Amino acid sequence: MQVYSTRNHQQIVSLKEAVVRGLAEDGGLYMPLHIPILSPDFIKNLSKLSQTELFYAIAQNMIGDTMPPQTLHDIIEEVFNFDLPVVHLHDAMYSLELFHGPTLAFKDVGARFMSRLLAYFYRNENQTLQVVVATSGDTGSAVAAGFYEVPGIQVFILYPKGKVSYLQEKQLTTWGKNITAIEVEGTFDDCQVLVKQLLSDTELNAKLKITSANSINIARLIPQSFYYFSSFAQLQSLGKPIVYAVPSGNFGNLTGGILAQKMGLPIRQYVAATNINDVVPQYLKSGLYQPQSSKATISNAMDVGAPSNLERLQHFFPHFPDFQKGISGYSYTDQQTSEIMQDVYRKYGYILDPHGAVAYLGLTDYRKEHPDTIGVFLETAHPAKFKDTVESILGISLALPESLQVFANKEKKSICIDNHYQTVVDIIQSKNLN
Ligand SMILES: *Cc1c(COP(=O)(O)O)cnc(C)c1O
Questions:
Q1: What architecture is the 85-104+222-394 domain classified under in CATH?
Q2: What is the pTM of this model?
Q3: Do residues 105 and 385 touch, judged by C-beta distance below 8 A?
Q4: Listed residue (32, 71, 78, 72) closest to 56, CA to CA
Q5: Which residues carry out catalysis?
Q6: What are the backbone angles phi and psi of residue 2, rounded to the nearest 5°?
Q7: Quick one: which atom of ligand 1 is closest to the CA of 252?
Q8: Low-confidence ranges of the chain (pLDDT < 50)
């Protein structure tokens, strides 16, 4: 598999280089040069395959030329050792639950796949690899879980001070060993800028080997196309057009969905649902991209004011009218989000987390105009990750799943810094073991 940079179509590198580098040299994001299309016959028979067989077939089609078949098969089996169930809520509304992985958020999918790919591609190198990641809450812990105790790899998690939930913070800061949590006085966007600066710092990269585990890394993107296939497989026999609503922040999840569509999965429509950080819904209306500074909401993993993956989406849809047609944008306030969580809990006994709730709202609004469709919304986090918020909105008490309880009992360890580039560089250099 070869990839190109969104900023320069002639800048072509191998998948290995793209995964190890994270961001292209020119600051662009890597995109697949060719997307092999799966046959209609394969699509028709999706449901005959087990999850592992299905994901392996898709991965083989896409990146089969980059490693031996058995290695790829082992990676798929290991990464997806949890369920991705489709739950029927009511009428033609389904929840695709992506939160059954080790850190209880959909980020586990991309982070686990990326860590295995990176470990494979980097297996013969002897220089320490520094993996930096900016997180609005869930990415950091998924990445930490994926790389914990992997020899030769140091992980640096940058997160915005005071803007992640108590349990999310525990999941970021209690690892130790090769995982360092850096608490930045600033927003998620500030953290993301710091990461991009690290990756494009030629002087630093001459000394250290640095990569990013953010959704800008193409290894995160690829597996985020898989669960669209497995969920589609379960619903296609109903014989109606299928629509997906994706709760979006940096738009990596939705970009994975578009990738699935480009591989031949006949998804009718995507709904991009955001909180009040609505840069993309606004862009879909006006054609003007106006990044903003991010505003804090109860769906904090989507508090992104300058979504990185828009650049990729623009490459998937080079003509703006196609972009507008392929993705419907909706945005919601915290008030609307809380109300729908109460409503769905009361009527159907289902606990939405604040992110899934935003997607549920988007899907409901879209389906008002297109009633003859089957709607799937992505439930991207376990509600217990946002225990305080969910409990106060629903007036219930939530039991912590055991995997969260373990983190809650550990002691937070982080390095608190101002939003200052050189300080981050100093921390990273101090952990360089070469
Ligand atoms: C990261 C995240 C999102 C947003 O996903 P993007 O790929 O950044 O659009 C939504 N929900 C949860 C729970 C997340 O952790």
A1: 3-Layer(aba) Sandwich (3.40)
A2: 0.92
A3: yes
A4: 72
A5: 107
A6: -115, 155
A7: 7
A8: none
